[in-house]
Amino acid sequence: MPDSASAPAGAPVAASSVTIKSFAFSPASITVKVGTTVTWTNQDQDAHTVTDKGGAFGSQALNTGASFKFTFTKPGTYNYLCTIHPFMTATVVVTQ
Amino acid sequence: MTDAQTNDPHGMTRRQLLRHTAWFGSAVVLTVVGGEVISQIGNSNAAAPVPAANDAPALRFVQISDSHIGFNGPANMMVEQTFAEAIDMINALPYRPAFVMHTGDLTHLSTPDQFDQVKQMMSELKTSEVHTVPGEHDGVDDKGAKYRQFFGKGTQGAGWYSWDMAGVHFISLVNTLGLESMGHLGTDQLEWLRKDVAHLSSDTSIVVFSHIPLFAMYAKWGWSTDDSVQALSYLKRFASVTCLNGHVHQLFTKTEGNVTFFSATTTAYPLPKPGDGPAPTPVTLPAGKLHSALGVREVNYVKGNERLALKDVRLT
Amino acid sequence: MKMKDLLLRLVLAACVAGTGWVHTDLYLNGYRSIHVIGPSFLLTGAGSFAVAVLLIFSNSPVLRLLAAGLAAGALFGFTLSRTVGFFGFTETGLNPAPQALLSLLFEVGALALVAVSFVPVMMKARTTSVVAR
Known about the structure:
The complex is a heterotrimer of chains A (96), B (316) and C (133).
Chain A: E1 13-14, E2 17-21, E3 24-26, E4 29-33, E5 37-42, E6 51-52, E7 67-71, E8 76-81, E9 89-95
Parallel strand pairs in A: 1-4, 2-5, 4-9
Antiparallel strand pairs in A: 2-3, 5-7, 6-8, 8-9
Chain B: H1 14-47, E1 59-64, H2 79-91, E2 99-102, H3 112-122, E3 129-132, H4 145-151, E4 161-165, E5 168-172, H5 187-198, E6 205-210, H6 228-234, E7 240-245, E8 252-256, E9 259-263, H7 290-293, E10 295-301, E11 309-314
Parallel strand pairs in B: 1-2, 2-3, 5-6, 6-7, 7-9
Antiparallel strand pairs in B: 1-10, 4-5, 8-9, 10-11
Chain C: H1 2-28, H2 37-57, H3 61-82, H4 99-132
């Protein structure tokens, strides 16, 4: 099922912070090097989570203004979503 | 009938026209009078606590939904208060509902405190049984483990169950707590459902509760269940199936074949109508308008009338 | 002749009253709360009783047409509710039983009787126009 169907379009952007706004992760696809810590910040009125489909990471529910950090130690492509609004999907590509 | 007193056999004398008008007028007057009388009887039936045997609803219950305890935002800065008001409204009804069903998103962030608070508040309800189904906000970080700790007694799998009351078969389905982009029931639950209704006679009234709509209300926002078609196929042979859901924070009704779907409103904050904007963001209404968007639902079941009678009541 | 007309009229009144009774009964038993259906059942019930009562005293064509209108309207609403839906309301088969079937019989009966009652008028109109030429 699902990953490719809802994969975000566009090439990954080199960035280590993601904004959650208007029910979307922005940028939808980022690329970082192994060892980078990525920070997600929720700017929406509603709560969201940052949860990896593969189970590598998962935040609790983030209220407005709350953030979640995760340090990527293994390379690979991580497809994640918000468990409350599972149509919100995004990707982190981790390189050596 | 009198003979025509005119040269034109197809026409009418003034006297005849007057006569016709008089009878028409009498019919109208009598209809209005009769209508008033019947309507008054209807009013007194609704208000009276225990009407005559055959006329009384065999079952009355209340649906409450989407309390989102723990939410704090411009759309509603006091969700606990509006939830309490809804509970008070239910307790003030002129009858004692057989049960109260909360169709999900009891909490906003699935924290133990929030679950505890909801459970405490609902224990104030003057009813014999309180039932729940979980919303996606009730399982944000643990696929519903905490929800089941507080509300899972007597349920199976992710939290589904069924029971019978007054000859009606009630089914509570869980179509949240997974990671699918829409509501999802899963094969285990579908198999359970198939067996659960297999032995029932086709004239049994069925009521299905779920958080997310079992019909396609707006798939783009996840307001749909991707495998509900199979579930509904198990219910196709029944004369009357009513599905009550929450999740969308607005009233909506749709009928498909023998199934009628009713979405309920919330006690927390309104959401936009399908497609009205880019996302289902909490809507902040002008001051003073919030209460009229919130409410609960009274449901009556009368034996012999397979269709449930619903009454959606706003928070005052 | 007159006896036959009177009998016809009374049976018609009974059919109309019958459909009025069924609609009123359902209205008072839950249908009241249904969007649009509730008020239209009330209207059909009250209107039917009104016309039925008046039909006892008069054979006015107005009353007979009203009876036909009520019956046809009820049948139309019934058909819609079993097919595309009537303001979102649908039911299946002959539910609720036995009210649905009874109502159908009363309405079809009423329409048939009204049609029959207008036959002499139509016959007379036809012969008159032939003669006038």
